[in-house]
Structure formats: structure tokens, C-alpha cells
Design a protein that fits this description.
With 184 residues, the protein is an alpha+beta fold. The chain has 4 helices and 6 strands. It has helices spanning 2-28, 77-87, 109-143, 149-182; strands spanning 43-46, 49-52, 57-63, 66-71, 93-95, 100-103. The protein has a 4-stranded antiparallel sheet with strand order 3-4-6-5, covered by helices on one side.
């Protein structure tokens, strides 16, 4: 019985990890307004090492359509600007000598639809992860010894309930993200 509870708990943790990854992926998908997570993947040459932008500068959002990057050392303005260009995110940074300002252009209808497709693909990946956790748990339950068939069946039902719950949550996240992307 204790072994069964451990399997169920491990499965729940795996499914929660899939949802966390989905949230992280959704944060990287642009939704028409400025978000510091848009620059999360940018690495800057800093004293000979590639360093995440967030570790050498403060990134803020002064208004919904602007990102402001203020490096902790002014000598990093050039390398940060270069890294943003090289990341090819579709942004044109402007350097005023103290900060780098990025104006986020409004999304076209076509681009919004592409972003929705991307969000749907990320949601499907999360659901695949959830179903994989279910499959592994069911296999583990079948392999356990010393547990009656009724308890195994009960455990599989609990795993299916978790699967349904987390799949529904992933779909709810997608609905929210889709609305966010399509809102002009």
C-alpha cells in the first residue's frame, strides 16, 4: 500500500513538472506586450564568458510596449546591444548611452495566429509528458508485488484521475494564453 502511494506521489510530481515547463514555455511566447522573459534566452559576452542578460543588467518594463535594459556596468552597453541583434528576436534596440530601450512593435494578425499555433504545440508537449507519467506509473503499479488486484486497479484509477486533472489544467492554461495572444 505504501509503495502504491509513493508511485502516485511521484506521478503527481511528474505531471506538475510538465505544467511548470508549459508555464515557462508560455512565458517565452510573446503576447503583444513587453515582458522581461522575452530576453531570457539572450547570452552576452561578459569578460570572455557567455552570461545571461539578466545577470549583468536590470530589465524593466516602463510601459506595456517598451523594455528598458540598464546594465550594471556601462561598458556592457555595446555587447548587450550586439547580443540582442544576434538573437534575431525581431527587436531593434536603441542605446542612449545609459540604457538600452526596446520598443515592442504590435503583432500582426498572421503573427498572432503563428504564436497561437506555437502555444498549442507547447500545450500538446505538456499533455504528452502527462500521459507519459501516467504510462510509467501504470507500469510500476503492474510490477508491484504483494498488492491485491483490487488495490492495483484502485491505484490505476487514481493515476487516471490525476491525468485527467492535469490535462484539463494544461488546456485551461492554453485558453488563457490564446486569449492573451489574440487580444489586440
Amino acid at each position: 500500500m505504501e509503495e502504491l502511494e509513493l508511485i502516485i506521489e511521484a506521478t503527481k510530481e511528474g505531471m506538475e513538472a510538465s505544467l511548470k515547463h508549459l508555464e515557462s514555455s508560455f512565458n517565452k511566447i510573446r503576447a503583444g506586450r513587453a515582458n522581461p522573459a522575452m530576453l531570457q534566452s539572450i547570452l552576452v559576452e561578459y569578460y570572455g564568458a557567455l552570461t545571461p542578460l539578466s545577470q549583468i543588467a536590470n530589465i524593466s518594463v516602463p510601459d506595456g510596449m517598451t523594455l528598458s535594459i540598464q546594465p550594471w556596468e556601462k561598458t556592457n552597453l555595446g555587447p548587450i546591444e550586439k547580443a540582442i541583434f544576434q538573437a534575431n528576436l525581431g527587436f531593434t534596440p536603441s542605446n542612449n548611452g545609459e540604457t538600452i530601450i526596446i520598443n515592442i512593435p504590435p503583432l500582426t494578425e498572421e503573427r498572432r495566429k503563428d504564436l497561437v499555433k506555437q502555444a498549442k504545440a507547447e500545450c500538446e508537449n505538456a499533455k504528452i509528458g502527462i500521459r507519459k507519467a501516467r504510462q510509467e506509473a501504470n507500469n510500476d503499479i503492474k510490477k508491484t508485488d504483494g498488492i491485491s488486484d483490487d488495490l492495483k486497479k484502485n491505484g490505476e484509477e487514481k493515476i487516471q484521475d490525476l491525468t485527467d486533472k492535469y490535462t484539463k489544467l494544461a488546456e485551461e492554461y492554453l485558453v488563457v494564453k490564446e486569449k492573451e495572444i489574440m487580444t489586440v
